[in-house]
Amino acid sequence: MLNLSGTVRRRALSAVAICAAFASVLMFGANVSTAHAAKTCPAATVADDMGITGEFPEQYELSEFTQGGCEMAYAENPEIAKLNAEITGNPDLPPVAERLPREPLVIAPYEAIGTYGGVLHGLSKGTESGTSDLLSIRHVNLVRYADDLKTVVPNVAKSWSWNDDYTVLTFTLRKGHKWSDGEPFTAEDVAFWYNDLILNPDVYEKTPDRWLFDGKPMKVEATDETTVVMTFPVPSPGILNRFAVDFGQPFQPKHFLKQFMPKYNPDAATLAKEKGLKDAAELLSKYYSGSDWKDVPTPLLSGFDTQVVPTLEAFIVVADTATGRRCVANPYFHMVDTAGNQLPYINVIDEQYVKDKEVQNLKITNGEVTFKEQAIFIEDYPLLKDNESKGDYAIDLAPTLGENIFYAFNTTDKDEELRKIFNDLRFRQAMSVAINRDEINELVFFGQGVPMQATPAEPETVNFVSDENKNAFIEYDPAAAKELLAGMGLKDSDGDGILERFDGKPLVVRLIYSNQGAPVKIHELVRDYWGKVGVRIDLKEVTSDEYRAAANNNDLDLTTWKNDGSAAPAISQDVTAMIPPFGDYFNPGTGFGWAAWKTSDGKDGIEPPAEVMELYKLTDKFLQQPIGTPGSDAIGKEIVDIHVKNLWKIGTVGNTKGPVMHSNSLGNFHPFKAKSYDYYWTYPYRGFQWFIKK
User: Fold this and answer.
1) In a 10 Å sphere around its CB, with 0-12 CB exposed, 13-18 middle and 19+ buried, how is residue 301 labelled?
2) 412, 506 in Cβ contact below 8 A?
3) Nearest-angstrom CA–CA distance, 157 and 99
4) Of 88, 180, 518, 683, which has the fewest CB atoms closer than 10 Å, so is most exposed?
5) Is residue 266 reached through a cis peptide bond, with omega within 30 degrees of 0 on the bond before it?
């Protein structure tokens, strides 16, 4: 069960633990600075906790850590002033104690107090493609999951509490917390995020559904400098868990962004005109463009500005080009290690864009990459494993959650003839049983997975996905597939091996894909399986950006990706995988016309069938139940049963494993318990305490 407690219980340090800690101070403190020899607080690590316990795993609140009477003296990266000089608009730095909150979050490193400096070299596909693993290293949110992937722990927020019926959530922030430019971060920045951005029609023409609750907005109030009260129109117990994994950050720097808003700055429109823009809304979009994603282009990329939006993250972008990004350590980051050293240890994240997988793997095997998790697949594992010594890195296999590669035929296709075929359940059943999942498991996943149907909830994380659900229509049976297609009236009249559509044209489906979404080999195999039963598949590779743009414009006949988000119902009660288009912008499924009909109140799109309308009702109820309770499980089962019956997404192989690569020079790196976007990649594993070994 998830740990939803938010009141930090204070536990005194034992006299024995304090004595043992004092004896260890010199050894640990010398790793960063000889000044640490005078410290009295124990430099505890996860490997040696020195008998210190706290409420939450691997971290402490300052008052909790120092309750035994020790004093915490702070130290800084000796190069932090130089790094700060790269951040346009930042003033000279005050002493580190003045940059930290009054109660910084104290982090116990995995193995050792780290050393400052160095560069983390990473790879992405492009500005908004394959970047999430690197973004997650610097990411923060109000809370996060500990690396046990079960316990929600404080992060930006110091604590939280619920009322009895999960309609009021109160966060307490850290006094003295500052943005990366040194300006105060307060509860007003959280209220500003929701009231002035999320609910602002100049930013979002329609409020994103994921920030509505039973179709209605929540109320966000800053009751004082450090207290935020969120009031929901219906019970919303999963929102805390969503904050723990979500890429979106529920806070934005009001002091910076308000200058572009007429509500706060009467001269905002004039400022926009001076910069050659239409209005203040367009000016605001240069800095906050209707997206909480941190991989969207910054003003640096276009040359519009030399300054970026201040952040609370561990690193801030200082260079943004067509070939990559450079991020430097945030001089106001709110965390310290147990020896008082401000985190992060690493100076720079250097992110290069490499679209070609062969080039990516070459850079890894040459030892040019410090860390890589996203967009490397198990098919890459043999090559990467064979070159570990050459590249001075380690490659591990971690369980993947929700990464069952799916295929979704477009049930609201713009081509009416294809739409008619795709909406016949017999067609989707035929396409499912025509897939040889055992062969895919052996050839693509090296036997590490389990043939499995796609479900809108990851079977390993919930109680309501049955074996019957997982095994529905997964037996390889091309004869049955042909029989189902014939039953629809589809024929191969000219004997060329390709069935004809009802209008006489060959039944040809183009599969547009990105190599970020799945191993290319699986697409080639599925193409051949479906070709054997008379459905010709034409493959075309595009970039991730091109794929997503086409899919969300309803221009694709068939979508495919990892089934990311299917673990979300158990983690954050995010139901985007349960309702059309059965995913989000970055990983859509099918039913785009149904989604358009729903969001436009029937003015656009295509009216959904009855079972899809039932899903909307069920998911509203699901969100109001604490996850794991009998009520939640009962509703979840209804949702999954509807999905599996209709095969809107056709799954292939689940319970797979995926490679996670890290350089041997990367200190405080621990093997991941899961390789999963659903937990936001590295976020639970505390990348801010990694360091580069000298």
Assistant:
1) middle
2) no
3) 17
4) 88
5) no
CA distance 52 to 304: 50
Burial code (b: 16+ CB inside 10 Å, e: under 16) for 485-517 equals beebebebeeeeebbbbeeeeebebebbbbbbb
| Average confidence (pLDDT) over 397-403 | 87
Percent of the chain topping pLDDT 90: 80
- Who's near 286: CB < 8 A, 6+ residues apart? 260, 277, 299, 304, 305
Judged against a pLDDT cut of 50, whether residue 352 lies above it is answered with yes
Q: Cβ distance 117 to 348 under 8 Å? A: no
Closest CA to 283 of 309, 315, 250, 248: 309
Burial class (CB in 10 A: 0-12, 13-18, 19+), 528: exposed
Angle between helices 425-433 and 478-487 (to 10 degrees): 160
CB 166 within 8 A of CB 625: no
Tell how strand 371-372 and strand 335-337 pair up: unpaired
Task: Report the alpha-carbon distance of residue 293 to residue 377 in Å, rounded.
Answer: 24
Whose tokens are 């070159």? That residue is 387
In whole angstroms, what is the distance from residue 369 CA to residue 360 CA? 9
Q: 623 with 573: CB under 8 angstroms? A: yes
Where does residue 206 rank: exposed (0-12), middle (13-18), buried (19+ CB within 10 A)?
A: exposed
Quick check: 109 and 683 in contact, CB under 8 A?
A: no
For residues 669 and 613, what is the distance between their CA atoms, to the nearest angstrom? 46
Q: Render 95-137 in DSSP notation, one character per residue.
A: PHHHHS-SSPEEE--SSS------EEEEEESBTTBS-HHHHHH
Q: Are 681 and 373 in contact (CB under 8 A)?
A: yes
Residue 39: predicted pLDDT: 55
The tokens of 605 are what? 């799109």
Q: Which residues pair with 536 in a beta bridge?
A: 508
Does residue 291 have a pLDDT over 80? no
* Contact call for residues 314 and 686 (beta carbons, < 8 A): no
Tokens 């200190």 sit at which residue?
Answer: 667
Residue burial 3-38, b: 16+ Cβ < 10 Å; e: rest: ebbbebeeeebeeebbebbeebbeebbebbbeebee
Give the CA angle between residues 369, 685, 31 to the nearest 5°: 75
Residue-wise pLDDT tens digits, 637-677: 999 999 999 999 999 999 999 999 999 999 999 999 999 88
Report the range of poorest mean pLDDT among 64-73, 309-318, 387-396, 607-616: 64-73
Q: Which residues is 400 bridged to in the sheet?
A: 675
Per residue in 575-594, pLDDT (tens digit) is 999 999 999 888 889 999 99
Structure-token pair, residue 462: 């919930």
| Residue 24: per-residue pLDDT | 36
Torsions phi, psi for 56 (to 5 deg)? -115, 150
Residue type, 439: E
Q: What is the mean pLDDT of residues 547-571?
A: 89
The pLDDT assigned to 161 comes to 98
pTM of the model: 0.86
Find the length of the chain: 694
Mean pLDDT of the chain: 91
